[in-house]
Amino acid sequence: MSLHHTSSRWVAIALACCLGGLGCSAQDETKFPGRATGAGGATSTGTGTTTGAGGTGPIGTGGSGVIGTSDASADATLPCENLQCYQNNCKSGACKVPPCANGGTTSVSGTIYDPGGTLPLYNVIVYVPNTPLAPITTGATCEKCGTVSGNPIASTLTDTKGQFKLDNVPVTSDIPLVIQVGKWRRQITIPSVASCADTPLTDKNQTRLARSQAEGHLPRMALTTGGADALECLLRKIGIADSEFTPETGTGRVNFYGGFNGAPRYSAALNGGATFTGATTLWDNAAALKGYDLVLLSCEGQERSANKTVAARQAMQDYANVGGRVFASHWHNYWLEFGPAPFPTVATWNHDDDLANPFTAEIDQTFPKGKAMAEWLVNVGSAAPLGQLIIREGKHTVDATNAAVAQRWVYSNTPASTQYLSFNTPVGEMEEKQCGRVVFSDIHVSSADTSTRNTQYPDGCASTGLTDQEKALVFMLFDLSSCVVGDRKPPVPPIIK
């Protein structure tokens, strides 16, 4: 199924309604600012798939960014507006299509994938907007669940197979469909749907996240390299385009900083062999950290306390507290164990012998996302049975997680240890005041690839495919990217008001 531009989507609907003197009239600029001035940004990729460019997508850069602010969507007695008028469940105003018999619905279904179109993804929001999308703010922000742009009129989430079924899809042509998890966002266009039936989307180029800014919005990520874990290779494996890997002075969404003994530069074929700025330039500067949506810290092979000053550790906590997302691998425990209070309290820290290699760990299934992770790993071909994960180069830095403020994900009973944990920030605050998130991994995730002081990126990324522990990290990476909510609560799609 091919896709088409939607730059005239809202104008066409508004004209149809206005000419009929009906209730789904176009809103003026004071209600939906920027609506008539949306940036195009469409790009053809793959098998002819055409997509909008995320926050400045083909239906404009306006919109309120908050669900249910359209006055027509808040009350079923008010006249329908825009695409609402083409829904089978439309009840007031200029309804354009009849209801389905026997409680039926018009739906769209499919599977959402990572940018490479390989791994199906859990807990991705899929929705039909009724107004133009607002641009996504880059940098640490307090993103709350339930607030997405475009005043959705239909929404759902993907399951542990990455599958979705979206009901109450409007019956018309050129229907906008948004795929979003955190600040990853892509908008596509469905040419048409069958009324009161399901329309499956089977082309992975339609239903994957954006590989580049030409296709949609990606979070801005900083990654510090380290000589013990080639975490930078994972981002390429999940399908992010090489054009997005640039120095921080460039326009790419992924910027590398050189950590101890890690890869120090690009290869000559990428960014002209530019040298990575030193990691301390990033983490010594709170403003630099806050310019990123995610900060990923590859293990350096030792704690390196000398390059993580008291001021730097405070800056990292401040970044997380205002909405930053941090992934720390192994020896980056230092930011937590020796960070400012209350970071040290999130776990019981220990430095015991490494785990056996390989080692079969347990997945904590006592909370909704933990259960989902266990099921998802089986669905993506994990070699271990449900509830377990085979890991390599597992460490023993954490004995236990402080359940009052943090969540255990992957662990061992013998010896008692935790390999993955997460917590929301500020630590100990009420959930409604928490904005950021931190994940700690006591595993060298990309152990099959190399990152050394003599390695140029991406030359050290020699492995193909994803190991089970890399798949687990992909799950954690997209969970880290998603909106912040208590781990004991199941994810819910945006509310249609």
Q: Please estimate the helix content.
A: 10-25%
Name the CATH superfamily assignment of the largest domain.
Class I glutamine amidotransferase (GATase) domain
Order of strands, widest sheet: 13-11-10-14-15-22-21-20-17-18
Overall, the morphology is: globular
Strand content: 15-25%
Q: In DSSP terms, counting alpha (H) and pi (I) runs of 4 or more, how many helices?
A: 8
Draw up the topology in text.
Layout: H1 9-19, E1 43-45, E2 49-52, E3 107-111, E4 125-128, E5 154-157, E6 163-166, E7 173-181, E8 184-192, E9 198-200, E10 221-224, H2 232-237, E11 254-258, E12 265-266, E13 277-278, H3 279-283, H4 286-290, E14 294-297, H5 310-321, E15 325-329, H6 334-337, E16 347-349, E17 359-363, H7 368-379, E18 388-391, E19 398-401, E20 407-412, E21 417-425, E22 436-441, E23 456-457, H8 468-481
Parallel strand pairs: 3-9, 10-11, 10-14, 11-13, 12-23, 14-15, 15-22
Antiparallel strand pairs: 1-2, 2-8, 3-6, 4-5, 4-7, 7-8, 16-19, 17-18, 17-20, 20-21, 21-22
Defining key terms:
globular, 14% helix, 497 residues, alpha/beta, Immunoglobulin-like, six-stranded antiparallel sheet, ten-stranded mixed sheet, 8 helices, Rossmann fold
What would you note in describing this structure?
The protein is an alpha/beta fold. It has 2 domains: 192 residues, Immunoglobulin-like (Sandwich), CATH 2.60.40; 261 residues, Rossmann fold, CATH 3.40.50. It has a 10-stranded mixed sheet with strand order 13-11-10-14-15-22-21-20-17-18. Strands 1-2-8-7-4-5 form a 6-stranded antiparallel sheet. A 3-stranded mixed sheet has the order 6-3-9, with no helix packed on it. Strand 1 and strand 2 form a beta hairpin. The radius of gyration is 23 Å and the shape is globular.
